Amino acid sequence: MNRILVFKLDEGKLGGNTMKLLKVHGSGNDFFILDQKQFKQPLTDNQLQTLAQRICDRKTGLHGGADGVLSVTPSTKESAALGRMRVINADGSEASMCGNGIRTVARYLSLKNQQTAFKVQTMYADLLVKQEADFAPKVKVFAAEISPVSFAAKDLKMHFAGKEQLINQELPELAPGFKFSAVAVPNPHLIAFVDHQQLIGSKLGEIASYLNDGKNPYFPDGVNVSFVEILAKNKIFVRTYERGVGYTNACGTAMSASSLMYVLLYQPQELEQQLEVCNPGGMVKTIVHQRQDSSYWISLIGNATFVAEVTIPQDAALQGDFQAATWQETGEQAAYENFVRGLKKDEIR
Ligand SMILES: N[C@@H](CCC[C@H](N)C(=O)O)C(=O)O
Which residues form the active site (predicted)? Predict the structure, then answer.
């Protein structure tokens, strides 16, 4: 039996001060799911921010930290979604969406509600999620709708003189020799198609850390930055430096935005076709769609791995003291690693 089915995060009866968390990942982009139903009083925004900063720290956090916390609550009354997800980055900032995270939340809500296709409420939209065929034994897969898409500078909170949008353009004031595209899905992404040496080089980190310093004139609220290498027709590799986190194994919304730019710039006839998107933590599949009103949306299809069930005294968690935490592995991580080993060598760098 899948142990996860008997793990009842929402009971909240472990004793007043105990918090339950679920460690999860999509393509190695890892999170702690926190179901706020377990509390009589949900954590305040300040507590959520502190919790994320404490447990996600890669050196001092819980079991090696994470890229963020995914807070799950019932959806608000305007929404018919099965649940609501909020995304708190490792630095405590809040993001409007998380493509890898939403698949894990979808799986969590699916198990709790015995449904395989439904909507999840996010900051700007209720997004469709759906269970898909496993990638491999014990590698569970969900698809998520990535939407709404915008190229408008105002939605990206992007400020380059005279530019209302940015599609494959040089930005000599930022980084000569690269062509950038900017797309909000709806969190902001800056994307450059590069060769292999540029993909593995240090320029991505230099550009992204500057654009996320909170002081630069171009993206004062920060931006997720990705370098993309075309590996073959309909096959790309995406490396991302995330706002609020730094380098990650993968960023689901970045892979979706990169897929959209790949289709628009290189293969406009490949709308509605499946793309393979490799990343340092594994591989996902994407499909770029266009609606009748000409707006775009992307299907992001990938693993939703449950790594471990965690309990920890709430006060200790907020103070960053993890000595009393329990950590119970689900056994899925070994299956995921096995799946990744089976991918062709050029798919993981
Ligand atoms: N890892 C996520 C994106 C998380 C939010 C991002 N860091 C931001 O601030 O926009 C994904 O898989 O999409």
Answer: 98 (proton donor), 98, 251 (proton acceptor)
Residue at token pair 């004139």: 217
Domain coordinates in residue numbering, the chain: 3-146+304-347, 153-295
Q: Which tens digits make up the pLDDT trace of 204-246?
A: 999 999 999 999 999 999 999 999 999 999 999 999 999 999 9
The count of other CB atoms within 10 Å of the CB of residue 321 is: 13
Select 153-295's CATH number: 3.10.310.10, 3.40.50.1010, 2.60.300.12, 1.10.3210.10. 3.10.310.10
> DSSP string of 29-90?
EEEEEEEGGGSSSPPPHHHHHHHHHHHH-TTTSGGG--SEEEEEEPPPTT---SEEEEEEET
DSSP string, 188-203: EEEEEE--HHHHHSSH
Summarize the chain as % helix, strand, coil (round to 5).
Answer: 25, 35, 40
Q: Which residue's CA is the closest to the ligand 1 atom numbered 2?
A: 98
Residues belonging to the chain:
349
Angle in degrees, 0-180, between the axes of helices 252-266 and 99-113, rounded to the nearest 10:
120
Cβ of 252 less than 6 Å from ligand 1: yes
Ligand 1 touching residue 251 (CB < 6 A): yes
The DSSP element (H or E) to which 329 belongs, if any, is: strand 326-329
Residue 84 CA to residue 81 CA, distance in Å, equals: 7
Q: Is the CB of 243 under 6 A from ligand 1?
A: yes
251 is catalytic: yes
Burial of residue 51 (CB within 10 Å: 0-12, 13-18, 19+) is buried
Total H helices, total E strands in the chain:
8, 19
Q: What pLDDT, in 10s, does the model give residues 99-122?
A: 999 999 999 999 999 999 999 999
Of residues 119, 123, 93, 97, the one with CA closest to residue 26: 97
Upstream peptide bond of 186 is cis (omega within 30 degrees of 0): yes
Could you tell me which residues are beta bridge partners of residue 283? 278
CA of 128 to the centre of ligand 1 (A): 18
Q: What is the ipTM of this complex?
A: 0.98
Cα pseudo-dihedral 57, 251, 239, 134, rounded to 10? 110
